[in-house]
Amino acid sequence: MCKPTQVEIRRVVIAGAGPAGLLLQALLMNRNKSPNSNVTYNVTLIESRQDLGKLDPKTELQAHRSWMIGLAGHGLEAVRSVPGLYDEYLKEVGVELTEGSLFMGAKEIKFNMTEEQQENFIVDRNFIVAALARYAYDNLRENEHYTSRYDTEMLYVDHANHRVLIRDNETKQEEYIPYDLLVGADGIRSTVREAMVKRHFDFELEVTDIFNTFKAVHIEKPKDISPTSLSLLPNCLPKMNGICLPETGDVINLSIGVSRNEFDVMPEGMKSNDPKVVAQFFKENFKAFKLTEEGYSEFAEQWVNQRWNRTGMVHCNMYSSLPCKIVLMGDAAHATSPSIGMGMNTALRDAQKFNELLDKFDDDLEKVLPQYSTDRVPEGNALSDLALHTYCFDSSVSVKTLIKGAIRTKLHKMFPSFIQDQAGNLIGRVEYTMAEIYQMAMEQGIISKHREINNRIRQDFFERQTGMIKGNPKSTPLMKYAMIVGLIASGIALFINK
């Protein structure tokens, strides 16, 4: 008679209730349902902010609108790997994009987004987080193998003893929690990642930004804007560029920003703290589409009552550590520019691919962790570099690249067997990995050329900002104008061929 196999209880601490962390906890808890598994996962979620899953989505959650992000094939496949998650919780969260517009002043150029039959949604980041958290609240909160600790700060990772120090934000009580696996899905300033910095001398980490600063407002949709359309707004205001994205509830998310080296010379009307001044300047100078009088006022009130935002970027050469029993996901591993709309999609894919490796190696972390890093590091770094360098900070070069890309796209449709498609057109397509698209962009000469120019512009700005070089910069084509990558490019790379 065979003895029953002993089941291992594996303590997993997930730091961060963002898309990657929330999806991974659902996947791990789903693994516990398998009757043939030799491992049972005890999952503890640590998140410093409140549980958005407890908020009523039609009332309370509306006060927590944030920024709009893309949800395309890679991310959709990932969330659909949990039965019922997409159909019951995520399906109605976003807006499916069917068309787009490029506004050159008041002139509108329309393009179709449905030709390739690829699903492309725009979702509010907090809304999708709330939906994922609501799934956990409904399905996991009574499970003996699941604990959520919201409003709790992760202070320190004792990687040598495999435990984390946490503090309850309300009671201020601190305690250590032991772990067998620690998942760092805790964002660009990851506490978990710091443990890898301390433990591994060969761990390479770079934290930068996308070289742009911007503000985003949520206002009633103008009557001339389609509820399923993305609108690109280059030069919508002097020195400034923007993007308009549809939201649920007949609302738009209008983001406008400026490159960091142009901030000092941007219009004073958009720097003002007086909403009347901002409203009047915007009404007189923004030509793409008109708002109602209430819309101009609401735009200005939101504009002056928020700080200028900057988005960070992260590059790492490893996403896991066997000695620390750590794995990194999402922004902790590869925070990126929103320019190609693939940041959240790649984060969700991280969780899905980690779960698939658990299947492949029968939950053996000694094999799973190094293989995860081998598989995902190329994807994460390709994502970050594509997002930053598909577009050039020098507007004249960027325009030439877009024209060449349009020509290549047209020729590819005419002679698909002879002319390779523009690399940017394939971003978001599930049949291509980010690394494959990155290699294609390198072969087409896009990334290497833009990287050289972008690095020179960024370095010049840094030298003058820090006082390493004093005086006015010489007038060169590179310093005339740096495009706002994070705001305009979101639609171009993902949807220009649709």
Tell me about this structure.
The chain has helices spanning 19-31, 73-79, 85-90, 125-139, 191-199, 275-285, 293-304, 331-334, 343-360, 365-389, 395-414, 434-443, 446-465, 477-480, 485-495, and strands at 8-15, 39-46, 68-71, 95-96, 99-104, 107-112, 121-124, 146-149, 152-158, 163-168, 174-178, 181-184, 205-209, 212-220, 229-237, 240-247, 251-259, 312-316, 320-321, 326-328. With 498 residues, the protein is α/β, with parallel strands linked by helices. The relative contact order is 0.14. The termini are far apart. α1 (19-31) packs parallel to α9 (343-360), α6 (275-285) crosses α7 and α10 packs across α12. The strands form five sheets. A six-stranded mixed β-sheet has the order 8-2-1-12-20-19, sandwiched between helices. A six-stranded mixed β-sheet has the order 6-5-15-16-17-14, with helices on both faces. A three-stranded antiparallel β-sheet has the order 3-7-4.
